[in-house]
Specification:
With 216 residues, the protein is α+β, with helices and mostly antiparallel strands. Helices cover 38% and strands 16% of the residues.
Length: 216
């Protein structure tokens, strides 16, 4: 009885079909792996793109009649979430020193709450904001203090391009509520001193009266 011979063309078709199935399986497997990888990368990007929240932290003074200011940045990836920039004095009428702290400003009992919200900027600005450390700090200044330092920082944020003029103005207006000497709400007290102020030449406040204080 003659043996059945498989034609070469049938054999070739079978091999091609097998190769196509194998290739399709590999492609599906690659697409599946790529999809999983893309999903993971998207999650990482979303975390990185969370904005930086900017605030002015205002503290009641230990002495004197000026609020203490600090510039605060919050981001969930920071540890413990906050970085604050401020200038302090070791002694009244002493030189100012720039200080960077990694602490929640609200942890201080002297911190006024809520914080003054200055807005949000993209996370990519975290490195350019290192320019804050290069801001000049006067050794001593009767007309310059912690409040002016925060205003200088806010000007720097604008000059870097992280915010526009409108955002800068909105933030500045929010801070100006606490700028300068603390105002006495008692109108009677102001009226009593009005005549004396009109008669005498205005003198600068004594150093101990405008002394600066830190956030800690």
């Amino acid at each position: 009885m003659p043996k059945h011979k498989t034609s070469k063309s049938s054999k070739s078709k079978g091999e091609e079909s097998s190769k196509r199935k194998s290739s399709k399986h590999n492609d599906d497997s690659k697409r599946h792996k790529h999809h999983k990888h893309s999903k993971s990368s998207k999650t990482e990007d979303q975390v990185e793109r969370e904005p930086l929240s900017l605030y002015c932290a205002v503290y009641t003074p230990r002495s004197g009649n000026y609020y203490h200011w600090a510039f605060a940045i919050y981001h969930p990836e920071f540890n413990p979430g906050w970085i604050i920039f401020e200038v302090t004095q070791q002694v009244d009428d002493g030189p100012f020193t720039a200080v960077v702290r990694e602490t929640d400003p609200r942890a201080s009992r002297r911190c006024l709450q809520p914080l003054t919200n200055l807005g949000q900027i993209h996370f990519d600005w975290v490195r350019p904001l290192s320019a804050i450390s290069d801001l000049p700090v006067p050794g001593e200044g009767a007309s310059w203090n912690c409040q002016d330092y925060v205003m200088d920082i806010w000007d720097t944020v604008l000059s870097l391009g992280a915010i526009d003029e409108y955002e800068w103005t909105q933030g500045r207006n929010g801070m100006m509520t606490y700028y300068g000497p603390i105002q006495d709400d008692e109108e009677d007290y102001e009226e009593e001193d009005q005549e004396e102020e009109d008669q005498e030449e205005r003198q600068p406040l004594s150093a101990e009266f405008i002394s600066d204080s830190g956030s800690d």
